[in-house]
Automatic annotation (TrEMBL):
This is Amino acid ABC transporter substrate-binding protein. The keyword Signal applies. Keywords: Lipoprotein, Palmitate, Signal. Belongs to the bacterial solute-binding protein 3 family.
């Protein structure tokens, strides 16, 4: 009888121990989840910035393979105002909104054009830079105006606002073929190699390449569409959006943004 009682006591003790461990583990997970829910992106010590590292002069790799550029300097200055660190993360530009919404990056900040379609996917800061989509061809080309693109082959970066600009213009119905590239660099390379006749590209980007490779390219007189750059923030994270906008506003007021613009463009091009 005593053996049975002892056996039942041991079973009860083991059961109680297992329940206690499970409760403790559950409580620990609950506390961790609660902690994570309170530490949203706006409260992070480090903000991860998603960029296309071939998008000069906004964000690109220099001769030492260091990531530099106008947007890189802007992001670092804003992070300093927000008292957080910043991590620059090169991404596949075609998956930028997916990277943002998955939480792998906190901001899209690299010549990111405001469009109606993108407004459905992300929150935007106020625009900080004006841009336009232009058509570039080789310096010796006979092309001079948009109508000359009829029957020609066009290169363009995949999932870029350049595609929207081209599609919105009537000349889109007359071009022979549009080839999409992962980066503008690849599109320009094919232009030089004669595989395409022209490339639709951001004006600020082309201005940079025109100074780096003088005599190689020319830009058609007519541009396709004006646009504006802003920073993309994950939908629902108004707290981060507001903190970032406050930092950008302060950078405009104290001259930080103008100084960065002078460094990269030789003039203050930042929108106030």
């Amino acid at each position: 009888m005593k053996r049975i009682a002892l056996f039942m006591f041991v079973i009860a003790s083991v059961f109680a121990l297992l329940v206690g461990c499970a409760s403790s583990d559950s409580g620990s997970k609950s506390a961790t989840n609660d902690s994570n829910s309170k530490s949203g992106t706006a409260e992070k010590d480090t903000l991860v910035i998603g960029i296309d590292d071939t998008f000069a002069p906004m964000g690109f790799r220099d001769e030492n393979n260091e990531i530099v550029g106008f947007d890189i300097d802007m992001a670092k200055a804003a992070a300093e105002k927000m008292e957080v660190d910043v991590e620059i993360q090169p991404i596949d530009w075609t998956t930028k909104e997916t990277e943002l919404n998955s939480g792998r990056i906190d901001l899209i900040w690299n010549g990111y054009t405001i469009t109606d379609e993108r407004k459905k996917k992300v929150l935007f800061t106020k625009p900080y830079l004006s841009n336009s989509q232009v058509v570039v061809t080789l310096a010796e080309s006979d092309l001079s105006k948009l109508n000359d693109l009829a029957g020609k082959n066009i290169g363009i970066q995949s999932l870029s606002s350049a595609i929207d600009a081209l599609n919105a213009h009537p000349i889109n119905e007359e071009v022979n073929e549009v080839t999409e590239y992962k980066t503008n660099v690849l599109a320009l390379k094919d232009l030089v190699n004669g595989r395409v006749d022209a490339v639709v590209i951001d004006e600020v980007v082309m201005d940079y390449y025109m100074t780096q490779e003088e005599g190689t390219y020319k830009v058609l007189d007519e541009s396709l569409a004006p646009e504006e750059y802003a920073v993309g923030v994950k939908k629902g994270n108004e707290e981060l959006l507001n903190k970032l906008q406050a930092a950008l506003d302060e950078m405009n007021e104290d001259g930080t943004a103008a100084e960065i613009s002078e460094k990269w463009f030789g003039e203050d091009k930042v929108l106030k």
